[in-house]
Amino acid sequence: MSKPNGKKVSMSKILIYLFLSLASLLSLFPFYWMFVMATSPSSAYNTIPPTLKPGNLLVENFQKVLGQVDFFQAMWNSFVICTIVTLVVLFISSLAGFAFAKFKFPGKNVLFMLVLTTMIIPPQLGLIPQFFLVSKAGLLDTLPGVMVVFFLNPLGIFLMRQYVSEAVPDELIEAAKLDGCSNFKIYRSIVLPIILPAFATLGIIVFTAVWGEFLWQFTVLRDPENYTIQVALAQLSNTRNIDFGMIMSGVFWATVPLLVIFLAFNRLFISSITEGSVK
Question: CA 36 to CA 25: how far, in whole Å?
């Protein structure tokens, strides 16, 4: 009986690994095809069957990008915006999540439901009011004007509230209060070290979301010196003869920082996802 069971388990593992390998290849294929197009001439974009072999024009296509837009300045602007927004969102969301998870105050459930309700509102509906407020504040065509609308993140508050509820024991907080710790000291000394995996998860989500956001950045920014990478890449298609190799080269190099960020925090990201199932 043990041998058939052993064979069955072994075969199921093989099938799982085959499925995961296939899913991984399908997930990575768009990145590979983007790299192929970034190294190929523009004519390769419309070839049938599509080209799957990398070319030798990666440097040449990227030089064309540098000739059209200030690529590195746009990358720096995006990096500054995404970094500051991520840090502010992590701070605000973790504080709010801690309060919603561990404190009792009048209207807590109603306020939390209002926060969740904002998640179902399409961001396009707030474009005009946000533009009006940013314009009145004198932040139009500035990097702070791009950042400020992303500081309050309902998804981040929800994730932090759920994580703090499960990961931080109530007894630990009560013991800290008996020792005379203030609420902020409890947050700083006890809660923060525990929720670092959740920080990595939320940080990656926020960083990639703000990096890839286009509509608000395109609406606010006018000066080429303030362009983010998404707005700068949009300028590459404003010519009569679109060079797809040049565009894909710009998109490829704009994607590299996201891959670096994910690989750098990969372990914390995975541990945050799997911690609930392990518990």
Answer: 15
- Residue 103 backbone dihedrals phi, psi, to 5 degrees: -115, 150
Q: pLDDT value at position 27? A: 86
Q: What is the pLDDT of residues 235-261, one digit of tens each?
A: 887 666 778 888 889 999 999 888 888
- pLDDT in the model for residue 270: 62
Domain boundaries, the chain: 69-238
Q: pTM of the prediction?
A: 0.84
Contact (CB, 8 A) for 160 and 203? no
What is the CATH superfamily name and number for domain 69-238?
MetI-like (1.10.3720.10)
Q: In sequence order, what are the residues at sequence separation of 6 or more whose Cβ sits closer than 8 angstroms to the Cβ of residue 133?
A: none
* Mean pLDDT of the chain, nearest integer: 86
- Within 10 Å of residue 41's Cβ, how many Cβ atoms? 16
User: What pLDDT, in 10s, does the model give residues 185-227?
Assistant: 989 888 988 888 888 889 989 999 999 999 999 999 999 999 9
Q: Residue 279's pLDDT band (boundaries 50, 70, 90)?
A: very low
Please state, in angstroms and rounded to a whole number, the distance separating the CA atoms of residues 198 and 160. Answer: 7
Q: CA torsion sign, 34 to 39 to 44 to 48?
A: negative
- The helix or strand, by DSSP H or E, that contains position 193, with its residue range, turns out to be helix 192-194
